[in-house]
Specification:
mainly beta; globular; single chain; 1 helix; 6% helix; 6-stranded antiparallel β-sheet
Amino acid sequence: MKTVSELVGKIFLLVQPSNFKAYYELMEGDEVIGSFRMKRMFFFSTEAEGINGEHIEFYKSQWWKSEISIR
């Protein structure tokens, strides 16, 4: 498993394997970096709890851009 410092500055892809479940995978290329279930749908900010219990926040730092940041 990669450390957070190895992932800084990389571009990721958010994949929803099933349209019927709020389950997502965060991928870097072909490698799954993490997987989690969303507590609620995307607004300007939303939190998720990872499979290992870590908390992840997805947010749009600028509402006019399509980029989503993670912290």
